[in-house]
């Protein structure tokens, strides 16, 4: 009887490890992606992206979610919290924006940025939670704008 209990306990531990690996590892791995040399599936302005999500979130998710997209807009805010570099891009409405979680390899570029500057950001779209969320972003500075 004791060996049966040990066997079930071992199976339970293995299932927990497999589930943890299956759910946690992709999150950790995705935060290290360098998108600099990756092709984008869509290029869009912050205004048009927000407008699309407000009009039809389900359709927009089917188009953009989990895809590499390029978004062009003006910087509303730059934040450095909890070892994360984040840029918020403006939209035409005060209530919505695009939150860009910047890849750590972009530290030098993010230090060059200023509020209201127009930039192009490439990232993995994760959907809409009052703001559109982009992860692993790389920054493309737009000259003369």
Strand proportion, as a percent range, falls in 35-45%
Number of strands: 6
Note the total helix count.
4
Strand order of the largest sheet: 2-3-4-6-5
* CA gyration radius, whole angstroms: 20 Å
**Secondary-structure-derived class:** alpha/beta
Question: What brief labels describe this structure?
Answer:
37% helix, 145 residues, five-stranded mixed barrel, alpha/beta
In short:
The chain is an alpha/beta fold and 145 residues long. The protein has helices spanning 2-30, 46-55, 57-64, 107-112; strands spanning 42-45, 68-81, 84-90, 97-102, 118-128, 132-141.
List the helices and strands and how they pair.
Blueprint: H1 2-30, E1 42-45, H2 46-55, H3 57-64, E2 68-81, E3 84-90, E4 97-102, H4 107-112, E5 118-128, E6 132-141
Parallel strand pairs: 1-2, 4-6
Antiparallel strand pairs: 2-3, 2-5, 3-4, 5-6
How is this structure best described in words?
The chain is built from four helices and six strands, in the order H-E-H-H-E-E-E-H-E-E. It is α/β, with parallel strands linked by helices. It has a five-stranded mixed barrel. A hairpin with a 6-residue loop joins strand 3 and strand 4. The longest helix is centred in the first third of the chain and has 29 residues, at 2-30. It is elongated. The protein starts with a helix and ends with a strand.
